[in-house]
Amino acid sequence: VHLVESGGELVQAGGSLRLSCSGSGFTFSSLAMSWYRQTPGNERERVASVSGSGDMTNYADSVKGRFTVSRDNIKSMIYLQLNNSKPEDTGVYFCSVVTFGTRYWGQGTQVTVSS
Q1: CA distance 11 to 56
Q2: Contact of 22 with 33, CB cutoff 8 Å
Q3: Residue among 97, 102, 112, 100 nearest 4 (CA)
Q4: Is the pLDDT at 108 greater than 90, yes or no?
Q5: Does residue 25 register a pLDDT over 90?
Q6: Which pLDDT tens digit goes with each residue over 46-81?
Q7: In this structure, how many other beta carbons lie within 10 angstroms of the beta carbon of residue 40?
């Protein structure tokens, strides 16, 4: 299993950003996937999940209404659209998948939201 995130950068508060994650080494379209973030001094938290087909999504309360998760199973990619970003969204964002009882992580991509 190989997950690679990209798209993290510095953005001003209120701005938008799209993160991408490519996945390989597993049956991409059959597995739900999630985005997590880790902020300094805190544990990694789940922010959004998307079902294998892409028709069901779930969000943490802190990002509901601002973030949108989606996927393109033909390209084996998932995305996280960040809108109306806030300084507290700053952190390293990871995509993740569980297959055969093991959770896999990408290397993460840094998002910094300046106030």
Answers
A1: 28
A2: no
A3: 97
A4: yes
A5: yes
A6: 999 999 999 999 999 999 999 999 999 999 999 999
A7: 7
- Closest residue by Cα to residue 50 from 26, 73, 69: 69
Q: What is the number of other CB atoms lying within 10 angstroms of the CB of residue 85?
A: 22
C-alpha to C-alpha distance for 101 and 81, rounded to whole angstroms: 28
Enter the tokens of residue 62. Answer: 């802190």
For 92-101, how does the pLDDT look when each residue is reduced to its tens digit (9 = 90+)? Answer: 999 999 999 9
CA distance 11 to 86: 9
User: What's residue 31's pLDDT?
Assistant: 98
Instruction: Return d(Cα 96, Cα 107) in angstroms, integer.
Output: 10
Q: What is the pLDDT of residues 81-90, one digit of tens each?
A: 999 999 999 9
Residue 89 in tokens: 């969204």
CA 101 to chain CA centroid, Å, is 20
Question: Is the separation of the CB atoms in 69 and 79 below 8 Å?
Answer: yes
